[in-house]
Specification:
276 residues, alpha/beta, Rossmann fold, two-stranded antiparallel sheet, 8 helices, Nucleoside_phosphorylase_sf, adenosylhomocysteine nucleosidase activity, Nucleoside phosphorylase domain-containing protein, signal, methylthioadenosine nucleosidase activity
Length: 276
């Protein structure tokens, strides 16, 4: 236990409550995130010995899944909420890893509703530098350029925090791929998860992201959570299920949220078993 930072008695109690001894080894929890109740309720229902905690506006459910420690985090929707919830999760639980999961809209015409994308990378697709245009010349989002790509490169934390693309932890990616044959509701593929506080319904704009960012899906949390996890050096992966896909007329299906939660729980379990 000495490897954990113990600034207060409250923090120590929280750590002790969420770390489980399994095969004579102290096992830190995996935090699994979902923005909304439809992306977290099923997982909460699968936990044993559940304790609910609230920090500010963010709720966490501590428990075990098949004997291993899991914390479910309802991040709320959007980039800022996801960043705040991720910071709270790391500070309070010192997790072994973080999985951000939930529903997403498709960008790749080859993907269908219920397909799952393992985020080999996640990227902030909401940061731009616009071209210079005079008043009256209008605006065209398809001509905007990625922001932050003109900043000087160095190794400071401040510059690192401005990166737009984040790689999945290799061990988490292996754990996620290892169980894909068990998923029967669609295909499981590696891809790019695009995140921003925007809900894109324009097919030309969706094509722009797919062509220029190689996005498989879009949503509003993963890249933000990945950014915080990277600054804390906590292993991270995003896992997203297509709930709809405008590029091939794939209609929204509300049952996709439960499918992704089941997969994320099994990824967490496989990761914990493989690394303890």
């Amino acid at each position: 236990m000495k490897k954990f930072i113990q600034p207060t008695l409250i923090a120590v109690t929280s750590i002790m409550a969420t770390h489980v001894t399994y095969a004579n080894t102290v096992v830190a929890p995996v935090v699994i995130q979902g923005a909304l109740d439809i992306e977290t309720d099923h997982m909460i229902g699968q936990l044993k010995d559940v304790k609910e905690k609230t920090y500010g506006a963010w709720k966490f459910w501590e428990g075990t899944y098949q004997g291993y420690p899991i914390v479910i985090s309802r991040t709320l929707m959007g980039m800022t909420d996801a960043a705040a919830a991720t910071t709270l999760a790391i500070e309070h639980y010192h997790p072994a890893a973080i999985i951000n999961q939930g529903t997403a809209g498709g960008h790749d015409p080859k993907l269908n509703v219920f397909d799952i994308v393992l985020g080999k990378t996640s990227e902030n697709i909401g940061a731009f530098i616009t071209p210079n245009k005079a008043l009256g010349e209008g605006s065209n989002t398809l001509t905007w350029n990625k922001s932050f790509n003109v900043l000087p490169k160095n190794n400071s934390a401040e510059e690192e925090s401005r990166r737009l693309r984040f790689e999945a932890d290799p061990k988490l990616l292996v754990a996620a791929n290892a169980i894909k044959s068990s998923y029967k509701q669609g295909n499981v593929v590696e891809g790019v998860i695009g995140s921003a506080d925007v809900w894109n319904n324009e097919l030309d704009r969706i094509k722009y992201f797919h062509d220029n960012y190689q996005t498989s899906v879009e949503e509003m949390e993963t890249a933000s959570a990945a950014q915080i996890a990277s600054l804390y050096h906590v292993p991270f992966i995003g896992i997203r299920v297509l709930s709809n896909n405008l590029t091939n007329n794939g209609s929204y299906n509300p049952n996709t949220g439960v499918a992704c939660q089941k997969y994320a729980l099994d990824v967490a379990l496989n990761y914990l078993k493989s690394n303890n």
